Amino acid sequence: MSDDKIRRKLTSLAAALRQFHSALLDVARSDYEFAHGKVQNPFELFNLVTTHPDFQWLRPLSGLMATLDEVTDEKGLILTERHVNDVEHALGLLFAESDTRFQEFRQGYARAAQDPKVRETEGRWREVLSSLEA
Q: How many CB atoms lie within 10 A of CB 40?
């Protein structure tokens, strides 16, 4: 697969993961607001997402997305199958029951997975990911 094709597919995956992350964040925000009251503005939400324990479970996915954006945005970097394999591996670890490092993420994800928007956006990124393997 050519660098250009890999870059397009990884960029599509990054966009799909952002939608998934947004859906997860909506669920986490709703849970937070139920327990603590309404989040007043985007600045308060940003502060909560970056510092409050109720949002900590989202951070591994946020970090993976930031790394993916850095890789796809880096000028002069030739993307290869290795980059695709790295992303697949990182996502696999995030969702793998056997990896205890991301247990908190999986617990938060399990709570959020009942939400239709979460299921829909998860289906999209998984579809893009499977197209990378083709």
A: 8
What is the 3-state composition of the chain as percent helix, strand, coil, each rounded to the nearest 5? Answer: 85, 0, 15
Which candidate, 22, 16, 32, 24, places its Cα nearest to that of 115?
Answer: 24
Gap between the Cα atoms of 91 and 65, Å rounded: 10
Q: Per-residue pLDDT tens for 28-67?
A: 999 999 999 999 999 999 999 999 999 999 999 999 999 9
pTM for the structure as a whole = 0.93
Give the distance between the most distant pair of CA atoms in the chain.
50
Contact 93, 99 (CB under 8 A): yes
Beta-carbon count within 10 A of 31 CB: 15
CA atoms within 13 A on the CB side of 116: 0
